[in-house]
């Protein structure tokens, strides 16, 4: 069997598909010589509208969010499958993945240090978008006879769009389900597998190592797919148990590693922040200037924290609570952890360490070229400037990040699949086989093709989902008003009572 031929065939299939889909999705408007995808501004506008409408809960409600994940409020008899902490861990595991490592590296290569600033802004604004969609995810969830829960956009979008008639509501919900299935299969699955293999190959000798031979990528993907399959068969409870242990540990290890690199370069930190701020408003070598770097920052932040995409409400809807707004407050922490903390740490490490691979990438951008940076390897190079053996530790962190993201997106994608094809043991097992096949494919294809197709599917989800959120804003406002009134009057149930 010609294994290398199989790998080439897979890669050759995905490249034209990714480019064809992207040409339709990323419709660009040109103003004053600057082209920008309209969908990026759709995300930004939604986040700003929600932040204003709900008086910026990302700033005044963080304390209460922390109390909720600590288990201070609620009842043991509340309906649902997982705790607030497990729901947050599952959702964070779907966002705190290689987008924080590889995606940020791509952003600061194409957009320079200034892209970091716009990623932070997008993360802060996205907190409120997540707040709205997760409140609705719990509000309209359905609990099945076996105790499992289906919620998120698959339940609230039909209600949002029913004013246009049931056929329109069903069609729009179907479009969302198809898009999130493919985003889960590509961005939540193939991207993770791709970059896990890239880092494993990097630390085992690169082009001269054992993972560079014919069939190595295919074999790596098969092993990873088997491990994923063993976990996802157990559903959200199994996923929640795994991510509840993996996410806090892997995030702590990664952030600690970033702190070590920053500590070794402490004298360069002020200059790095200066470069991030000046680069945001005075970028060099970026097509479109300020608008160009803003788009890159917002686009990569959207891929990282997925605010407005409709994915997180699927995990959050399984929470044990009788108060939908409570999970909305918990979800505020998700983009903060993902984008404001972890993405910023990654960007700082790259800007401060300035590995040669980043310098070369920036030089190519300045020369008008379009480099295809290998994101996770670039980040690995940055860590290696301080601790030469750290790429091995990063390889482990990458594997854990990728694995937790993979299993969470398997749950999200399965809900899309059962929305389209029905809920039965056969359809669920068929889905799990197909999802694991995408894991294998992801280890083989080119990174740029994966990112292109993933971004396209992500923005289709956001287009439909945010439209639904606008229509259901009055429902969220009422839920939040009643919940906060009960909190102020001390009428919320307390676990410590």
From TrEMBL:
- Name its cellular compartments: Cell membrane
The alphabetized UniProt keywords are:
Cell membrane, Membrane, Symport, Transmembrane, Transmembrane helix, Transport
Pfam annotation, one family: Na_Ala_symp
Membrane topology type: Multi-pass membrane protein
Superkingdom classification of source? Bacteria
TM spans (from-to): 34-54, 168-191, 211-234, 246-266, 286-303, 332-354, 389-412, 433-451, 457-476
Assign the protein's first listed, main location to one coarse class: membrane
The record's section on InterPro entries has: Na/Ala_symport
**What family name appears in the similarity comment?**
Belongs to the alanine or glycine:cation symporter (AGCS) (TC 2.A.25) family.
Name of the molecule in the record: Alanine/glycine:cation symporter family protein
């Amino acid at each position: 069997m010609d294994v290398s031929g199989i790998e080439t065939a897979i890669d050759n299939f995905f490249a034209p598909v990714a480019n064809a889909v992207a040409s339709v999705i990323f419709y660009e408007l040109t103003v004053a010589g600057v082209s920008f995808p309209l969908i990026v501004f759709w995300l930004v506008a939604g986040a700003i509208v929600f932040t204003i409408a709900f008086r910026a809960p990302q700033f005044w409600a963080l304390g209460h969010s922390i109390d909720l994940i600590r288990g201070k409020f609620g009842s043991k008899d509340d309906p649902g499958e997982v705790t607030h902490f497990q729901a947050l861990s599952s959702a964070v595991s779907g966002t705190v993945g290689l987008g924080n490592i590889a995606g940020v590296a791509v952003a600061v290569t194409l957009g320079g240090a200034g892209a970091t600033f716009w990623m932070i802004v997008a993360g802060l604004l996205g907190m409120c978008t997540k707040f709205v969609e997760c409140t609705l995810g719990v509000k309209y969830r359905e609990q099945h006879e076996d105790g499992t829960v289906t919620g998120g956009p698959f339940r609230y979008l039909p209600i949002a769009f029913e004013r246009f008639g049931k056929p329109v509501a069903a069609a729009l919900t179907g479009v969302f389900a198809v898009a999130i299935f493919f985003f889960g299969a590509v961005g939540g699955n193939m991207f993770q597998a791709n970059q896990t293999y890239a880092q494993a190959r990097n630390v085992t000798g690169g082009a001269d190592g054992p993972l560079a031979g014919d069939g190595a990528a295919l074999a790596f993907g098969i092993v990873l797919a088997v491990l994923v399959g063993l976990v996802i068969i157990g559903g959200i409870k199994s996923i929640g148990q795994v991510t509840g242990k993996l996410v806090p540990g892997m995030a702590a290890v990664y952030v600690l590693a970033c702190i070590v690199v920053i500590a070794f370069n402490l004298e360069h930190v002020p200059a790095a922040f200066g470069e991030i701020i000046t680069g945001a408003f005075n970028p060099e070598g970026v097509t479109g200037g300020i608008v160009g770097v803003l788009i890159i920052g917002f686009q990569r932040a959207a891929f990282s924290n997925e605010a407005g995409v409709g994915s997180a409400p699927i995990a959050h809807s399984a929470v044990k609570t009788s108060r939908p707004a409570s999970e909305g407050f918990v979800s505020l922490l998700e983009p903060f952890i993902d984008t404001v903390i972890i993405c910023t740490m990654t960007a700082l490490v790259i800007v401060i360490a300035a590995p040669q691979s980043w310098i070369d990438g920036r030089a190519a951008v300045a020369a008008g070229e379009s480099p295809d940076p290998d994101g996770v390897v670039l980040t690995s190079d940055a860590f290696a400037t301080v601790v030469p053996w750290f790429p091995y530790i990063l390889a482990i962190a990458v594997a854990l990040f990728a694995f937790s993201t993979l299993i969470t997106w398997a749950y999200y994608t399965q809900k899309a699949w059962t929305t389209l094809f029905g809920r039965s043991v056969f359809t669920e097992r068929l889905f799990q086989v197909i999802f694991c096949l995408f894991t294998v494919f992801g280890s083989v294809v080119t990174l740029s093709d994966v990112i292109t197709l993933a971004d396209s599917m992500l923005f289709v989800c956001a287009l439909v989902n945010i439209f639904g959120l606008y229509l259901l804003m009055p429902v969220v406002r009422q839920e939040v008003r009643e919940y906060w009134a009960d909190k102020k009057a001390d009428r919320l149930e307390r676990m410590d009572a």
